[in-house]
Amino acid sequence: MNSIETRLKELMLASLAGDARSYGILLNDVAKHLRSYFLRRLADAHKSDADDLVQETLMALHTRRATYEVDRPFTAWLHAIARYKLIDHFRRNRIRATVPLDDVEDLFVQDQSDAAADRMDVNRLLQSVPEKSRDLIYRTKIEGQSIAEVAQSTGLSETSVKVSIHRGIRAITARLKGNAANDDK
Question: What distance in Å separates the CA atoms of residue 42 and residue 90, rounded to the nearest whole number?
Fold first, then answer.
């Protein structure tokens, strides 16, 4: 997890547990993040709407905080709320979002919502395999540890690590193929 995700998620979890100070810090940090998020997506003529969108998103975060699933990335949940608020704003004001072609690359480089959604997808897929395989896949394929490092830290042989990873990936592949077959129906 990146440091922003980790920090915001920890603050959210503490606030859900009743820590008012953490909630205040969370709202302050999120407001800064959301302001830049909206400013990147609004045309110059509508930049003044950014603060209103931040407030709407913070109110939605507050009223919907009980719907946050603690095992999911916080920033993906936050960006989903912000994206819906932005879409509502565009519809309400009959604004068509446009981006100059020169700026398209910057837009994608700065947008982390897809990466957060991808992390959610990976985490969901990993939840479908046994815990042992899930941990080994995560450590080798996502964190980048070597088979030898994982074997040494878990006390398993390198062969056992490889077999568990292979079985886990095979189970994920079978699940994906099953979902693809269901999508074709």
Answer: 9
Residue type, 116: A
pLDDT per residue as tens digits for the range 31-87: 998 998 888 887 776 677 888 999 999 999 999 988 888 888 888 889 889 988 888
Element at 147 (helix H, strand E): helix 147-154
Question: What backbone phi and psi angles, to 5 degrees, belong to 135?
Answer: -65, -45
Contacts of 157 (CB under 8 A, 6+ apart): 151
Cα→Cα distances 66→33, 63, 73, 75, 94, Å: 21, 8, 15, 15, 32
Other Cβ atoms less than 10 A from the Cβ of 39: the count is: 16
Q: What single DSSP character describes residue 129?
A: S
Contact (Cβ atoms closer than 8 angstroms) between residue 46 and residue 35: no
Other CB atoms within a 10 A radius of the CB of residue 54 amount to: 22
Cβ contacts of 30-37, under 8 Å, gap ≥ 24: 30/58, 30/61, 30/78, 31/58, 33/4, 33/8, 33/78, 34/58, 34/78, 34/82, 37/79, 37/82
Question: Given 3-state DSSP classes, what are the helix, strand and coil percentages for the chain, each rounded to the nearest 5?
Answer: 80, 0, 20
Q: Which residue has the tokens 């995560």?
A: 138
